[in-house]
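Q: Please design a sequence for this.
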C-alpha cells in the first residue's frame, strides 16, 4: 500500500500554487446537474473526492468530460429521468459530498435516492438539518438501509432555520430550493467562502440567490437554469496547510493563487505566533525564523478559525514555546492524530474538546498512520519539521483533498516520496542520506 516516506529537518522555501477549492467544487459539480445545458467548470482540483463525485454524476447518465486536468464539462441533458434516479455507488458512500446529489436531484427531478454519506470519521456528522430543510420544501424523506430517499410532488419555497451552522446543509438546501416554487429563506446559514462560490455558480446559471456569505440567504425559485462557464475559487485549506508548513519548518514560502481575505483567521494566528505573513493581491508569503510562540485557538464557523486547519496548527503549536490550548467546537472526534504525533515526541493532552499543548523543541521521525484527511496533512507537516525519517501510511485520505501534495512539497525542497514497499523506503533513505 502506498505511503509517504519523508526526511525532515529542511526549511521549505520557494513558491507553491494552490488548486481550486475542493469543498466548493463538490457543491458546484453537483449543482451542474440542475440544468440540461452544458456547464464548463474551471479550476476543479484533481483530487479523489472530485473524481469520485464526477463518476457518480456520470453514472446517473450525465455526460462528463475532462477538457483538461482542471476543466470539466458536465451536461445533464443526457440523464434519463425514469423516476428512479439513484446514487448507490459503493464509492459515493466514502465521500461526504455525495449528499449534495440529494439536493440537486431532488431540486431537478423531485426524487432522489442517495447512499448515506461517508467522509472522514471526525465526529457523528448527522444530516438532520439537511433533512429538515428538504422537508420544509415539501419533500418526504426516509432513511432505509443506509440510503436516503427524498421525494416531492412539487417543491415549494419556505422558511428554514438551521439549528446549527452547517456548511453542508446550507449548500444542500440552496441546491434543492433554486428551482422550487416561490421564496426560500435560510436563516442561521453558514457563511464559508465556498457557500458564496456555490451561490455565485448557481446565479450564473440563472438562479436568484441573495445574501450568500451572510447568515440569511434568500432564494427566489426560477423555472429553469441554463448552462454556464465558471471558475472555482482557490482552496482556503490547502493554502492554510502550506502556510502552517512554512511556519513549522522555519521556511519562507510564497503561496500563490489565494484570496488573502479567506485566510485572515489563519494569518492572524500565525502572526500572533511570531511568523511573518505578507499579503499580496492573490498570494501570501509566510516566513518564520526560530521558535514560534504559543497561542489559543478555538475552531468556529467562518469567519472564525476553520476546523479543517486545526490539526495543521496543532502540529505547529506543539513545536512552539510555551503552552497552547486548542478548543475544537465543530467536530467531537478531531484529535485522533494526537497519538501519532506523540510518537514524534509531541506533548499534547486531550480533555474533552480541548487539546492542551506543551511545546517541545524538536520532533523525531516516526512511523505513523494518517487518521483522516486534514490530520494526515498535519502529520506530513510534523514529519517535515522533524529530525530524521518518518513514514506515513493510509495516504489515501490525503489524496482525497490535496492535489499533487508530495510534488508541491518537493518543489519547496522537502524530501518526500510516495513508496509502495519497505524496500522503496530503504532506497529513499540511501538516496537522501
Ligand atoms: C463541511 C466540509 C468539511 C468541514 C466542515 C466544517 C465538505 C464536503 N466538508 O463538512 O471539510 O470540516 O464543513 O467547515 O464541504 N451538523 C448537524 N446536523 C446536520 C449537519 C451538520 O448537527 O445536519 C453539525 C455537524 O455535526 C458539525 C457542524 O454541524 O458539528 C458543522 O457541520 P457541517 O458544516 O455540516 O460540516 P460538513 O458539511 O459535514
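A: Design:
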Amino acid at each position: 500500500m502506498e505511503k509517504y516516506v519523508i526526511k525532515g529537518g529542511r526549511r521549505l522555501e520557494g513558491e507553491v500554487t494552490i488548486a481550486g477549492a475542493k469543498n466548493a467544487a463538490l457543491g458546484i459539480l453537483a449543482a451542474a446537474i440542475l440544468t440540461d445545458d452544458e456547464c464548463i467548470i474551471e479550476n476543479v482540483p484533481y483530487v479523489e473526492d472530485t473524481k469520485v463525485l464526477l463518476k457518480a454524476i456520470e453514472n446517473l447518465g450525465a455526460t462528463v468530460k475532462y477538457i483538461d486536468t482542471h476543466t470539466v464539462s458536465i451536461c445533464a441533458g443526457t440523464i434519463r429521468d425514469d423516476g428512479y434516479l439513484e446514487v448507490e455507488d459503493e464509492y459515493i458512500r466514502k465521500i461526504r459530498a455525495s449528499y449534495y446529489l440529494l439536493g440537486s436531484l431532488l431540486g431537478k427531478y423531485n426524487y432522489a435516492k442517495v447512499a448515506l454519506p461517508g467522509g472522514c470519521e471526525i465526529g457523528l456528522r448527522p444530516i438532520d438539518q439537511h433533512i429538515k430543510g428538504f422537508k420544509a420544501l415539501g419533500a418526504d424523506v426516509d432513511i432505509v438501509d443506509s440510503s436516503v430517499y427524498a421525494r416531492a410532488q412539487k417543491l415549494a419555497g419556505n422558511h428554514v432555520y438551521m439549528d446549527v451552522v452547517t456548511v453542508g446543509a446550507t449548500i444542500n438546501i440552496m441546491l434543492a430550493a433554486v428551482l422550487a416554487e416561490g421564496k426560500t429563506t435560510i436563516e442561521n446559514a453558514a457563511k464559508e467562502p465556498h457557500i458564496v462560490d456555490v451561490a455565485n455558480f448557481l446565479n450564473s446559471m440563472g438562479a436568484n440567490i441573495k445574501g450568500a456569505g451572510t447568515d440569511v440567504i434568500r432564494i427566489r425559485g426560477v423555472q429553469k437554469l441554463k448552462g454556464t462557464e465558471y471558475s472555482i475559487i482557490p482552496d482556503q485549506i490547502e493554502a492554510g496547510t502550506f502556510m502552517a508548513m512554512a511556519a513549522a519548518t522555519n521556511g519562507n514560502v510564497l503561496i500563490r493563487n489565494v484570496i488573502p481575505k479567506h485566510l485572515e483567521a489563519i494569518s492572524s494566528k500565525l502572526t500572533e505566533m511570531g511568523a511573518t505573513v505578507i499579503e499580496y493581491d492573490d498570494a501570501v508569503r509566510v516566513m518564520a525564523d526560530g521558535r514560534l510562540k504559543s497561542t489559543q485557538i478555538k475552531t468556529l464557523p467562518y469567519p472564525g478559525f476553520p476546523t479543517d486547519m486545526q490539526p495543521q496548527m496543532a502540529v505547529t503549536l506543539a513545536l512552539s514555546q510555551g503552552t497552547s490550548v486548542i478548543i475544537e467546537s465543530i467536530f467531537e472526534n478531531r484529535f485522533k492524530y494526537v497519538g501519532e504525533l506523540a510518537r514524534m515526541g509531541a506533548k499534547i493532552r486531550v480533555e474533552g474538546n480541548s487539546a492542551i499543548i506543551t511545546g517541545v523543541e524538536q520532533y523525531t521521525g516516526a512511523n505513523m498512520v494518517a487518521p483522516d484527511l486534514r490530520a494526515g496533512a498535519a502529520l506530513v507537516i510534523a514529519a517535515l519539521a522533524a529530525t530524521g525519517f518518518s513514514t506515513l501510511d493510509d495516504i489515501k485520505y490525503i489524496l482525497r483533498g490535496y492535489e499533487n501534495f508530495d510534488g508541491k512539497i518537493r518543489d519547496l525542497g522537502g524530501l518526500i516520496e510516495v513508496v509502495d514497499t519497505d524496500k522503496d523506503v530503504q532506497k529513499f533513505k540511501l538516496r537522501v542520506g
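Q: Thanks. Anything notable?
A: The chain has two domains: 3-19+234-432, 22-231. Residues 22-231 form a domain with the UDP-n-acetylglucosamine1-carboxyvinyl-transferase; Chain fold (CATH 3.65.10.10).
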